[in-house]
Amino acid sequence: MADLRIGSANAAASIRPIPLPELRPSAPTFGESLGRAIGDVNQLQLDAARAATEVASGQSQDMTQALVTIQKADITFQFAMQIRNKLLEAYGEIMRMPV
């Protein structure tokens, strides 16, 4: 049986450091991921505006594809707004914490 009393020589010798994971330099940061997500939402909004303009001007007869594009942009935007609201709520909670 190993001697695990505090201060014993055997206990100190049996403790091995835990290896830390290596940080991958190619892993995107939170800011980069957030920027890419916002860019994707913006691109979907631009695609929806273009599809609506094409249908309204008669350049495109594919009303179904235009509506799908517009709905996809709307749902993505609503999702982004919910994430923003949750982040603001979490920030407010952190700011109310006593130090």
Gist of the model:
The chain has 99 residues and is an all-alpha fold. The protein has three helices and no strands. Helix 2 packs antiparallel against helix 3.
Task: Throw out a few tags for this protein.
0% strand, mainly alpha, elongated, 99 residues
Characterization of the model:
- The structure is a single chain.
- The chain is an all-alpha fold.
- It has a domain at 31-96.
- Helix content is 69%, strand content 0%.
The proportion of residues forming helix, as a percent range, comes to: 55-70%
Q: How many beta-strand segments?
A: 0
Radius of gyration: 27 Å
Shape, principal axes of CA atoms: elongated
Largest beta sheet, briefly? none
Structural class: mainly alpha
SSE inventory with pairings:
Blueprint: H1 9-14, H2 30-57, H3 63-96
Helix pairs in contact: 2-3
